[in-house]
Amino acid sequence: METTTQTSDPPPREQTKQATSPAAYLMVLLMGVYLGILFSKSEVAHWQRIHDMFLFREAHMYLIIVTAIVVAMVSMLIIKRFQITSIEGRPIRYSPKPYHTGVVIGGMLFGAGWAITGACPGPIYAQIGGGQWMALFTLVGALLGMFGYAALKPKLPH
User: What's the pTM value of the predicted model, to 2 decimals?
Assistant: First the structure.
């Protein structure tokens, strides 16, 4: 006696969750290590550099920020031109978010936190990796801010 089982068609590709390969995780880890070294060597993760930037004492950080913007612009042009996809194989698209009051408030809070702690989210890890243990407080504050935003998001202006 032969039994058959019915199978339904597989879900469309968009609905299928693809597992990220260990090689992809390794590449992300290596990129993080590279950025940590870059942040340390360029002194982007040093509190005094950030402090001097906000007091307009030196142009070091402004030059790094402008360089990062140029690199991002060129990278986006290359991504568009060659239709490069993400690790998951999805197209990379840039869609600017609309301007609203929340952007101004969020930007002011971000800037104040950056000025006080000497770190935006990326260099926090470089500071911790470099033995600046006070950056753990910055990390906790960043995580609290992230979770607070997620909790308040439905009530915030968007």
Answer: 0.68
